[in-house]
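Consider a typical record:
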Amino acid sequence: NFRKLAGCTLFITGASRGIGKAIALKAAKDGANIVIAAKTAEPHPTLPGTIYTAAEEIEAAGGKALPCIVNVREEEQIISAVEKAVKTFGGIDILVNNASAISLTGTLETATKKVNLMMDVNVRGTYLTSKACLPHLRKSKNPHILNLSPPMNLNPIWFKNHCAYTISKYGMSMCVLGMAEEFRGEVAVNALWPKTAIHTAAMDMLGGAGIEKQCRKTDILADAAYCILTKPKSFTGNFLIDEVLLREEGVKDFDVYAIAPGHPLIPDFFLDVEIDTTAVKQKGYALKEEKTESAPAKPSGPVAETFRAIEGAMTEEKVRSTQGVFQFELSGDGGGTWYIDLKNKGGSTGFGKPPGTADVVMSMSSADFVKMFTGKLKPTMAFMTGKLRIKGNMALAMKLEKLLTQLNSKL
């Protein structure tokens, strides 16, 4: 890669682990200077790495590291780290706003302190770090700001189940939109987002054990970020998806980025490509759902038998650990609208609409439904091949495969 970032100084928030550290290590191989602006100075009980262990890895890779204790909620810590970076390396060429907080919860379930955390870290932290770095970036020959944030997709599906998180991530994207125009010709400002789930400590917490097989490595974002940060500053105001960008750059083998090559991958939030939106009509961004007519009588046969078996296998523990209502729109023999309630009381199944609002709506053929619930068809495979269409809370839908593993022996 001709060491394109040799001698450049990168200020990366949240660089002690995960995606931030991967971007840092990629730049370090060129001989770049990396300011590790993160808050983990002492080993965390459950999360790997500190700013100091990250610094050791960066220097071992060929870069120079400056570990700085920075909680982006604290403006004074941001300003202090920026001043230290300029004093140590003579300036700042690149800012990567990677630090982020997540809570995939509904409006009534999201505690105020969680709302504050997401808004403070994602929106305010990104804005203030950009503000502190911009006077120094403007002095660089090829300055860049890169935010790890999604394209702004106003499909209401992405607001419905985790409104606060979506607002906070789109706030980061709005910083790109505004600052790219404000500093056009001076500083490039772009956004980068993964097409699929990326294996990080956060994903382990969200998805549980075994989720890594459905994820890609952080390397794919590091390579995509490198492509962006080595472009001229005229390349600005773009919302880029890692795989799309790398394909345009000539990358053909994406198995190298997979944790488990050949295994189906989970699509990331805010991208409609893999989501069934046939029941969503957008006009002025209002949600209008097509009504599904229920069959007049409860069907019998394999589908009905499967639902009876599911209800028989329910336990209070499964209800407590899942906390979701799944609605199924099935076509073919024994089809119609069915539900599995794993949120209320001891759980229940039934024909027709669920008693409350469904968290996840799944559409598929009745034959594939039976296969999925008897272990002959994995949900991720059904989803990736188009046999299963999902609308609603994707994080909750991800729990389905784990649940099926527990149920299959009883079905």
About this structure: Confidence is low (pLDDT under 50) at residues 274-298.
